[in-house]
């Protein structure tokens, strides 16, 4: 089995950063009334700026595939790349797959493709596919990506028909909190890494291991799109609704069961990390930089407390976060966080980095352990 290194990393954040006072101008106002939940959610998540792949008039400036292709081009020469592995939760199409669309834009020769579906963990699943391909010797160079264009699913247009329908029924035309919640959390962007079997630059990151854990056998769905959650916890898929119901119920909008999230996301996070530590015989003392993908600073203290309760607490001075500057970019967040750290000048040979990526869709977690070479 061969060693695998991240030798280059790049990101692409579209357009200019949008501050809290101007985000509703870009996303649009639902039902003619500003969101009542926006200020509460922003105060809790502490995000100051984020990026949208749209102009001032709400028109799209980039597709998800275009965001991804721009990040990949930031890696430089791609002629020797044999595999492109892409992860996202907001692909532009049901078909073709994300990697096919990105490859079509890159036009850089024949290669193997892989697309990882899911939510935030899809970016790390894409990385693991590339890691295993190099580890087993099937390829010598791979590019792995994480990307999102969440703004397309949180624009006011996505909810206007639902609001109008509620008003017709003489009901309160306020969009439910489980939908409004995510409008003020999510951001657009893409990150990409180049994997090789040898360190090639001043700073390369050796992938020591990648471990994933799912709790779907215990937990009902928490975050979803393209369906509606039933009272029994099951999901009714979009294909089982007629096309009028798609807009009346905002079926394709991203939704979050906030109560379920608060009760379980941190407990399962600590459990999964404890399992990874045990399997690889490492602990908090073996981590110099901890990069947790958290959707809100609201979870920062709670996650620390839950880890400490399980005997695996990592001191805050080892944490590296950029959420307040770039927002929650889902599958791309961990790539963009790592890109900032790798280019910060802080890393030195021998440093150990732990990446932590949760996804609340049905409670999955992926942990990645890196060493600096």
Can you tell me about this structure?
- The strands form 4 sheets. This protein has a 9-stranded mixed beta sheet, with helices on both faces. A two-stranded antiparallel ribbon has the order 2-3. A two-stranded antiparallel sheet has the order 9-12.
- It contains 13 helices and 15 strands.
- It has 373 residues and is of the alpha+beta class.
- Helix content is 34%, strand content 22%.
- The protein has helices at 23-27, 38-45, 64-73, 98-106, 121-135, 151-154, 157-168, 177-183, 243-248, 258-280, 298-309, 323-326, 333-342, and strands at residues 5-12, 18-19, 49-50, 83-88, 112-116, 141-149, 188-196, 205-214, 223-224, 227-229, 235-237, 255-256, 289-292, 352-359, 364-372.
Question: In a nutshell, what does this entry contain?
Answer:
This protein is α+β, with helices and mostly antiparallel strands.
- Secondary-structure element sequence? EEHHEHEHEHEHHHEEEEEHEHEHHHEE
CATH topology: Peroxisomal Thiolase, Chain A, domain 1
Alpha carbon gap, first and last residue: 19 Å
Helix-strand category: alpha+beta
Relevant terms:
single chain, 373 residues, alpha+beta, Peroxisomal Thiolase, Chain A, domain 1, nine-stranded mixed β-sheet, two-stranded antiparallel sheet, 13 helices, 15 strands, globular
């Amino acid at each position: 089995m061969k060693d695998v290194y991240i030798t280059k990393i790049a990101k692409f954040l579209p357009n200019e950063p949008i501050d809290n006072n101007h985000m509703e101008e870009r996303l649009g106002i639902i039902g003619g009334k500003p969101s009542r939940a926006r200020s509460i959610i922003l105060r809790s998540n502490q995000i100051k700026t984020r990026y949208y792949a749209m102009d001032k008039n709400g028109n799209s400036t980039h597709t998800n595939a275009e965001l991804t292709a721009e990040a990949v081009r930031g890696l430089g020469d791609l002629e020797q790349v044999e595999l492109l592995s892409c992860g996202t939760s907001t692909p532009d199409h049901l078909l073709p797959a994300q990697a096919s669309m990105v490859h079509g834009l890159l036009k850089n020769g024949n290669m193997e493709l892989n697309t990882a579906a899911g939510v935030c963990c899809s970016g790390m699943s894409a990385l693991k596919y590339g890691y295993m391909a190099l580890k087993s010797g099937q390829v010598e160079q791979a590019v792995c990506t994480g990307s999102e264009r969440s703004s397309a699913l949180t624009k006011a247009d996505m909810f206007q028909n639902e609001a109008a329908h509620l008003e017709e029924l003489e009901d309160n035309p306020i969009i439910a909190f489980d939908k409004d919640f995510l409008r003020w959390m999510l951001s657009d962007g893409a990150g990409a890494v180049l994997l090789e079997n040898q360190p090639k630059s001043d700073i390369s990151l050796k992938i020591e291991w990648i471990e994933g854990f799912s709790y779907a056998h215990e937990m009902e769905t928490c975050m979803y799109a393209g369906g509606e959650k039933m009272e029994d916890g099951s999901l009714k898929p979009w294909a089982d609704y007629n096309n009028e119901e798609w807009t009346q119920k905002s079926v394709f909008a991203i939704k979050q069961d906030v109560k379920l999230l608060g009760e379980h996301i941190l407990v399962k996070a600590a459990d999964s990390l404890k399992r990874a530590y045990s399997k690889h015989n490492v602990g908090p003392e073996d981590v110099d930089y901890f990069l947790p993908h958290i959707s809100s600073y609201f979870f920062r203290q709670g996650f620390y407390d839950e880890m400490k309760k399980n005997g695996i607490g990592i001191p805050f001075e080892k944490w590296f976060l950029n959420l307040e500057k770039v927002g929650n970019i889902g599958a791309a967040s961990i790539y963009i966080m790592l890109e900032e750290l790798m280019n910060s000048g802080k890393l030195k040979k021998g440093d150990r980095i732990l990446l932590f990526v949760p996804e609340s869709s049905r409670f999955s977690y992926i942990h990645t352990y890196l060493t600096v070479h």
